[in-house]
Amino acid sequence: RSADGGRLDESEPKKLFVGMPAIYVTATTAKDLKGKGIDYGPFGPYNSAVYKYPKRNDRYLIFRLLLKTDLHPYHWKLRGVCLMAQTE
Question: What is the separation, in whole angstroms, between the first and last Cα of the chain?
Fold first, then answer.
């Protein structure tokens, strides 16, 4: 994550887990979300999965989160980017 821009960014080489600031999460409808006019970047947001544990399956999926990015969302999907509540 880019500290200054608030956007998803490349991690340091050979670093598997990178810290992320605390995120305030609230529920909203898609209609309300479009009405807010949030700028996710030129290609739109990256729809990231948030997992409870590093084992990535439906059982440990908590929710999905839209993240801002300057790159195409497929860039992050091909890298397997996701968020985890804990790394142990």
Answer: 21
- Position 42, amino acid: P
pLDDT one-digit tens code per residue, 36-73: 777 787 888 899 999 999 888 999 999 998 888 889 99
| Close Cβ partners of 17 (under 8 Å, ≥ 6 residues apart) | 84, 87
**Comparing C-alpha atoms, which of 41, 39, 38, 30 is closest to residue 72?**
41
Tokens of 68: 């801002």
The sign of the torsion formed by the CA atoms of 85, 86, 87, 88 equals negative
Distance (Å, whole) CA 12 – CA 2: 12
pTM: 0.78
Single out the residue of 43, 34, 38, 3 nearest to residue 19, CA to CA. Answer: 3
